[in-house]
Write a structure and sequence with these properties.
Two copies of one chain form a homodimer. With 465 residues, chain A is α+β, with helices and mostly antiparallel strands. Chain A is built from 14 helices and 24 strands. Chain A has three domains: 261 residues, BirA Bifunctional Protein, domain 2; 110 residues, Rossmann fold; 64 residues, C-terminal domain of ProRS (Translation Initiation Factor IF3, 2-Layer Sandwich).
Chain lengths: 465, 465
């Protein structure tokens, strides 16, 4: 396998192929097939997301994929932001359709006409819904699995509130939810407030969660948007308040995508292959029997698997005859399984298992009667180790740069003073190829603009995916 | 609410509206919005399906929604069967696309080019995959929620095998899987072997699972198809057998859709509203506190909910202040929750709960310490009662008819002798508006054709959805 540091891009493509996450040989470029192993990982990410929004009383819905041109045209700023990326359905059977329909690029224009029917009085608010669906972007740029593709597995939450104060509270709740999700996925990130010219079409402001891949380029892995009543005014989403007056609702959104999986692959993986956080791993534990002539082995292996499965662990028993234990060890290490259990004749005799962590060398013994707490503890350790390693790597991929020259000499995310003016960030981009991700909210600070010297704030700059 | 027997069609539309399963006011006709309650039910159906195919070692995947015209044209019979129903994407951004792409109407043409890459040797077989996705049909007929729509929530399993014998074994396994699924959903059905002119485009033969709604019309709720090597020859799916010879693979498919939910609504519902089988119910138990001045009530209610939730039951606590217990009883009965738990001052004092089943009048007491086995038992009873009621109703909606006159005077599914010739079934259709669903496999028998008098088999005839 390609060395991860030496050629990250090659390593990334290769590990996706050999670990069988997705197959990009589908005859339409940029539309890939989710293979069983990759789809399991993605569904586990979805489960983490669902658990964290369900507990905040979001309701899951599912909207149609098609949006008419009329629906899209209601919010002009919004459609303008997407018009070059829309796939258009223009024919049904052999007939030309009266009204062209787009495959959703995101669902504001699909949902808000319904919000306008659903929201009647203040008692209907807050309205908090989400869906997990595919969205479509006619990408003309170079595509890359899970990062830049044409059919994107997508999470989108949409809310409506009484006023700006409540929609701001929602923005704060999103941050709380995101902390839980990113923690389960062991992903480090900056929060950047996108500049005016790069905010979501129709939003008042957009906050992005930016991480960094080992190439030094940043990857946007989540966004939250404050709409205030921008969309409500266009889609006529009004409620009658306590005094009976009709008032526009205030709205927000929160978006995530399969880029979360890209970040997990790129950040946690190593030269041996994938490393899955326990909450995401398709299999948390792989059980590999070491051939022996102990006649109780099969029964013992089976008990180990049953006990763990019954306690909610995702367990894979690898009893393929055609492969040696050594081959299996390498195979599952490459595929990123957090824990490997080995059971040979000795383990059967001792009623114990030998466990190896994906994140460190060495093995340890766990008594059968200690199996469940033992495996829990080791999975917890793996999660901690992955988190610590990712945090350390992120620190190396992000630094304080006080001049354009320093920025240019550094591959990672530069945290530098910026006055907020586009002229200055354009100058930086021209000189360094780094674009401004926005004022850094997660490590805020005042600093003079490194271009014009005027007072400014610490902002994030990087090459991006 | 509309009387179910008197005007089933009205009743059906109304109950979907008032129980908030889906909203058909979306601006594109035939594309409806899944509301939280309906989506929960559908996801539970998906879970039942997943559990039953996963255990048979099917692997879940996810394929792109778009299929190029070239990919579709590979199997001419197949595309011919769909060509009037396809939505075509012809533009990306402002550009006309070089190659038109259809939204999948089903995924043979998407999957089999990949099968051709994946299947190499006999060791790759059997290949058993499935996906749960939306499919698209440009319906020109009258649309109806969950029954005839343009965006269809769909389950499709696809397999490849060494030979006809193994693909036939797969067909038998599908029957076994379907029995488990239909049993969890409490749905009665006939198995009909579709006539040649009505089989799936590209199939050698198609077996359909047909149930009946109270209108007397039949509803196809599932199908399995034997392809033999028809598709393999066109999509070049070949493997090298033990002797190294290249051989075409034999294939089958199994399809289900949101019609399963339609059947559950239409068959189990009554004049009070929905009746959900426990495996499908968004909430299996609703807990309704009856206001009292017992200060321990809130704590006790909370314990009941926690114990049940911890044991895997789907529980809804209805503590809305603005509604009376009576209103809540009616509301949750209408929405089909299998069990209602009432907790007032007396129950708190006795450390017990009062339980009412959706399927029968009367209430019973369960001691708190017996809560988990008690609720399990009652849910089991509800399932048995729903199954028995549906079976009885299905018997009434299906009868042996020995003449065209008898068929005409009967609303339900007629089981009648048929020689297999299209002329005779066309005659029947002209005289009775009933189409032939095919030779009945589930209650097979010999019988003379009721039109021509020649020897034949018992076949199913009905008006259909």
């Amino acid at each position: 396998m390609e060395n991860k540091k030496k050629d990250f891009s090659e390593w990334y493509n290769e590990i996706i192929d050999i670990s069988q996450l997705s197959d990009k040989r589908y005859p339409i470029k940029g539309m890939n097939v989710w293979l069983p192993y990759g789809w399991k990982a993605m569904k586990n990410i979805d489960s983490v997301v669902r658990a964290n929004v369900d507990i905040k009383e979001f309701q899951e819905v599912s909207f149609p994929v098609l949006i008419t041109r009329d629906m899209l045209m209601v919010e002009f700023e919004h459609i303008k932001g997407f018009e070059n990326e829309l796939y258009w359905v223009t024919k049904g059977g052999k007939e030309k359709l009266d009204i062209e329909m787009a495959l959703r690029p995101t669902s504001e224009a699909a949902m808000y006409p319904m919000f306008s029917l659903w929201v009647r009085t203040h008692a209907d608010l807050p309205l908090k819904i989400y869906q997990i669906v595919n969205v479509y972007r006619y990408e003309t740029k170079h595509t890359r699995s899970f990062i830049r593709i044409r059919e994107i597995h997508f999470f989108e939450a949409h809310t409506a509130h009484r006023d700006h104060k409540e929609s701001e509270e929602q923005m704060a709740e999103y941050m709380e939810i995101w902390k839980k999700i990113s923690s389960a996925l062991c992903l480090p990130f900056h929060v950047d407030r996108r500049p005016e010219w790069d905010k979501f079409p129709g939003a008042v402001y957009s906050l992005a969660f930016d991480t960094a891949l080992p190439s030094g380029r940043s990857l946007q892995i989540g966004t939250i948007h404050q709409y205030d009543d921008n969309f409500a005014r266009n889609y006529d989403i009004k409620y009658s308040d306590e005094s009976g007056q009709a008032v526009y609702a205030y709205q927000t959104t929160f978006g995530l995508s399969e880029r979360l999986l890209a970040a997990i692959i790129g950040i946690h993986g190593d030269d041996t292959g994938l490393v899955f956080p326990p909450d995401v791993a398709p299999f948390q534990v792989v059980v590999i029997p070491i051939p022996s002539d102990n006649r109780e082995q099969e029964g013992f292996v089976s008990s180990v698997c049953t006990v763990l499965t019954d306690h909610g662990f995702r367990v894979k028993l690898d009893n393929r005859d055609a492969y040696t234990p050594g081959y299996k060890f390498n195979d599952w290490e490459m595929r990123g399984v957090p824990l490997r259990i080995e059971i040979g004749g000795r383990e059967v005799g001792e009623k114990s298992v030998t466990v190896a962590k994906r994140t460190s060398r060495g093995r340890q013994k766990i008594e059968f009667k200690e199996l469940v707490p033992g495996i829990s503890r080791l999975l917890h350790e793996v999660r901690e180790e992955i988190t610590a390693r990712a945090a350390k790597q992120f620190l190396e991929l992000s630094r304080r740069d006080k001049s354009v020259e320093d920025m240019r000499s550094y591959e990672g995310i530069s945290l530098s003073g910026w006055c907020g003016n586009r002229e200055c960030s354009d100058t930086i981009e021209k000189e360094t190829e780094k674009v401004v991700l926005g004022i850094n909210i997660s490590s805020p600070g005042d600093a003079k603009c490194i271009v014009c010297g005027k007072p400014g704030k610490i902002a994030s700059f990087s090459r991006t995916y």
